[in-house]
Design a protein that fits this description.
Chain lengths: ~450, ~425
């Protein structure tokens, strides 16, 4: 019973700087890092000390409040340092690679013939569980719940997003293996959602043991939240697990070979990167080698992830746990005279969802957008703008206001269980009043988690 | 520009917290952010942001009001000299020559209208700044539009002190007590107008205020206007049709006149083309449907105003006009429905007042209901309650209050639709 969903709402931000379809091997990074901040709400208990040797696949830290969920080292080497931030919060666990290939080896298991408990235990013990996120709340999945469905999006529609068909090409077997393992975790189905606009790679098209659906439209069509909403929406008390396609491959590889082998293909994108392509590297790799002699200007923002939802990292920072993309944007930290580049300027360099800029008449052009706020924060004034970019049967402004006023009943009724901050990223982009919508959504989800879960 | 940028931003530290002129920060912020979009960059969430901001949005509305303002200036002059043309030439020598002089009218209009605009902005901005200083933030852009709307809803002869009082009242009671731009319940400009309308009715209604210079002329002429001259508006005349003493343009009709006679006389005085262009007496900016539609076109083209509200507002007015026709109990009710849309401030209100996003319905479906009912209510007030000749101000204010109720039902519908989805799934 396959569906073809067509979305009318959404917005494709035409950014300059797509990655060329070339895969290039990046040499083994000398340092990798696991960043607890990639997992919202996680309080890590680090089990190794600086100077300790770790094998690839050996546990580095676990969740203080859910000891079963463990994170393992993506490389073999020695722990270099624990980077702490304000209030001694752990920001990074850095591991220096030693070039050897000491790996924790377990017996491969065919997930098809294993029990749910075995599959789950294997994933928990070997650091595969954090790849699974759950809705509601959009955090690492709670292993004690059984989800009603598992969703995997076979494409990414975010600005400059990597082409997942290209990334997954040739990894059919591992991907299928991963799907088989995930299928064990749910009583319902595993849903794999393809882009309705272009034919998908064989790895996706020939996937078995899943329900294939198609969705077409502008961003956020590729967001797993959009797909869940239109295919099998979440009600209060229900859980859905979501996994990224590259993470499914890592899970599949583990079940096939018994080794944690988190190869990642990461697209370097954005107008400020010179040589933009896909790099084959490893989970948590340092971005410095990709950026070396590769930046157009110096005053740039390095984003792990896409321009709408990614995290700002340093030039020698690390790719985030769930990210397959690094975006380099020009910083916009300069004053703009109101008649030339500022608020009353002709605006030929600005891409807007509003028709207040002439650029909506020019269809093809791509834009080099910087990180300037383009205005100051105000109270909500303009209505109807968010509704145009949110392809959900959810009233965005009313929901955000419910969050702002901490009205839990209204949040529940208006659909907070279905959403994640990333689903509202476009709402934040278009907001005339420059309100931090994603942050508000996260606050709302935190409240719900505290009060209702 | 670079030099200016340097000069201004070298001052930054003096206005920051702990700086020498810290207290003047709101004023400095307003001026410096007007000249230069700040260098603030995104911190959390989306790293890139849409180019639009509230300044640009509001500026577009002010721009869209310019046709109404320009026409209002001309129209003010026009009716002033029209009135003078009835005067005995010995008394007001030379005045009749002015009736055809375009520039004479414009100059007179400017003299009358510009002070009102200046007073409205000065009083409003001063009030806004006082609140800005209290709260420590610069000017929020909402008043840029209100400051232009207020003069356009006033009769040209309104005393300037009244404009100032009304503006201050509207900004304080209508907006700032609720928390400022984006938080108000009632349209700020209409609050100002309603305040004057009820506090000083003799300056805001009747048949002595719509043509500039009416009361002076009446005084000079011994208390009454010269023969043939009239200070009434189309809506005032129409309201008189409901009572015992129907008049058209100051000329009384017999109480026994049939509806047909009244209406044909009315059409003679305010023919549809003139009314559409706006060559009828009324508040400064409200008379011209053409100018309002021109502004509306700008707002719709740029997407600032909601087409849902504008379209449904006109539809509501027309449908209720037809409904009145169906009853047909008096001459006013029998008037062609389209007439309602081109006289008084209907178009102006529909385009500029009803579409204020803060006070209108905020849901997409709600906007249809809000507009339709607003348009309909305008006609109901006009026709059924002749004490209030112009219904649009009260209709929009009433709908402002009702908008949250409309939204409530739209939201409830969304909630129950989403609940149902789970039951059937």
């Amino acid at each position: 019973m396959s569906k073809a969903v067509k979305l009318r709402k959404g917005l494709d931000i035409k950014l300059l700087g797509e990655a060329d379809k070339v895969k290039s091997d990046l040499e083994q990074p000398s340092i990798v890092a696991l960043k607890p901040a990639d997992f919202h709400g996680l309080v890590p208990k680090v089990v190794i000390k600086p100077g300790d040797k770790v094998k690839r696949g050996e546990v580095v830290f676990y969740d203080k409040y859910n000891k079963d969920v463990k994170w393992v080292s993506p490389v073999s080497g020695t722990m270099e340092e624990l980077v702490r931030g304000a209030k001694r919060k752990i920001l990074e666990v850095r591991i220096k690679t030693d070039g050897s290939d000491d790996v924790v080896q377990v017996n491969p298991v065919d997930p098809a013939s294993a029990s749910r408990e075995d599959v789950k235990k294997m994933m928990l013990d070997n650091g595969l569980w954090p790849f699974i996120k759950q809705r509601p709340i959009d955090v690492v999945a709670d292993p004690s719940v059984t989800p009603k469905a598992i969703f995997i999006s076979a494409f990414d529609s975010a600005p400059l997003a990597p082409d997942m068909d290209f990334v997954l090409h040739g990894q059919d077997q591992d991907f299928q293996h991963g799907l088989n393992a995930l299928a064990k975790l749910t009583d319902g189905k595993v849903y794999l959602t393809l882009n309705g606009k272009v034919p998908a790679d064989k790895a996706f098209q020939n996937a078995k043991n899943v329900e294939l659906n198609k969705i077409s439209g502008k961003h956020p069509a590729g967001n797993v939240g959009t797909q869940i909403h239109h295919i099998n929406p979440i009600d209060k008390g229900e859980y859905v697990f979501t996994v990224g396609p590259q993470d499914v491959v890592t899970i599949g590889k583990f079940f096939a070979e018994g080794k944690f082998d988190p190869v990642r293909i990461v697209a370097l994108t954005g107008s400020e990167a010179k040589n933009r392509k896909y790099f084959r590297t490893i989970l948590g790799a340092q971005v410095a080698p990709m950026l070396k002699n590769n930046l157009v200007t110096d005053n740039v923002r390095v984003v792990s992830g896409n321009a709408l939802t990614g995290d700002k990292i340093d030039k020698d920072g690390f790719v985030g746990f769930y990210d397959s993309q690094v975006t380099i944007l020009p910083e916009g930290d300069e004053y703009k005279f109101f008649l030339t580049k500022g608020w009353l300027g002709p605006g030929l360099d600005k891409y807007s969802s509003h028709r207040l800029f002439p650029t909506w008449l020019l269809n093809k052009k791509k834009y080099r957008l910087d990180t300037n706020m383009n205005g100051e924060e105000r109270g909500f004034v303009v209505t109807g703008e968010m509704e145009k970019v949110l392809p959900f049967d959810i009233l965005p402004m009313q929901l955000i206001k419910a969050i702002m006023t901490n009205d839990i009943d209204a949040m529940e009724a208006l659909g907070i269980y279905e959403i994640a901050p990333e689903d509202f990223a476009l709402c934040e982009y278009v907001c005339t009043s420059k309100i931090a919508i994603q942050e508000k959504v996260r606050e709302g989800l935190d409240t719900i988690q505290e009060e209702c879960m | 520009m670079k030099a200016l940028k340097k000069v201004i931003h070298n001052l930054d530290p003096k206005f920051e917290k702990g700086g020498k002129w810290e207290k003047m920060y709101p004023l400095y912020e307003t001026l410096s952010t007007f000249l230069f979009t700040p260098k603030d960059v995104t911190k959390k969430g989306a790293h890139i942001r849409d180019g639009v901001d509230l300044k640009r949005t509001m500026f577009m509305v002010v721009l869209a009001l310019i046709p109404c303002l320009l026409f209002g200036i001309y129209n003010t002059g026009h009716w002033h000299y029209e009135l003078q043309s009835y005067v005995n030439p010995d008394q007001y020598a030379g005045y009749e020559n002015y009736l055809t002089g375009f520039w004479d009218k414009v100059v007179y209009g400017l003299i009358q209208v510009l002070p009102i605009v200046i007073v409205s902005y000065a009083a409003g901005l001063a009030t806004e700044f006082i609140f800005g200083f209290m709260k420590g933030h610069g000017l929020h852009e909402g008043f840029l539009v209100s400051g232009m709307l207020i003069p356009l809803t006033m009769p040209a002869d309104v005393p300037l002190w009244m404009v100032a009082v009304a503006t201050i009242f509207a900004v304080v009671i209508g907006k700032e007590v609720f928390g400022g731009t984006g938080m108000n319940i009632l349209n700020v400009a209409l609050t100002a107008r309603a305040f004057l309308y009820f506090a000083y009715p003799t300056s805001m209604s009747g048949d002595k205020v719509w043509k500039s210079g009416t009361s002076e002329l009446a005084e000079a002429n011994g208390g009454a206007l010269p023969d043939g001259a009239s200070g009434a508006t189309a809506l005032g005349d129409l309201a008189s049709f409901v009572g015992d003493a129907p008049t058209v343009s100051g000329q009384a009709m017999s109480a026994n006149a049939t509806s047909g006679e009244m209406l044909s006389k009315f059409e003679g005085a305010y023919d549809p083309v003139h009314a559409f262009i706006g060559m009828i007496p009324g508040s400064i900016g409200e008379t011209s449907t053409v100018a309002a539609l021109l502004g509306g076109a700008i707002l719709l083209f740029t997407g600032v105003a909601s087409w849902r509200i504008i379209l449904s507002f006109f539809a509501g007015g027309f449908v209720f006009g037809l409904l009145m026709n169906a009853f047909g109990a008096n001459a006013y009710m029998e008037m062609d429905a389209y007439y309602h849309l081109i006289i008084g401030g209907f178009a102006f209100g529909a385009v500029f007042m009803a579409t204020d996003p803060v006070t209108a319905s905020q849901t997409q479906y709600g906007k249809f209901w809000y507009g339709f009912l607003g348009g309909g209510l305008t006609i109901l007030i006009r026709v059924l309650n002749p004490a209030y000749a112009e219904g649009i101000m009260l209709a929009i204010l009433f709908m402002n209050v009702m908008a949250p109720l409309i939204d409530h039902y739209v939201v409830q519908a969304n909630i129950s639709r989403r609940k149902k989805r789970f039951k059937t799934a």
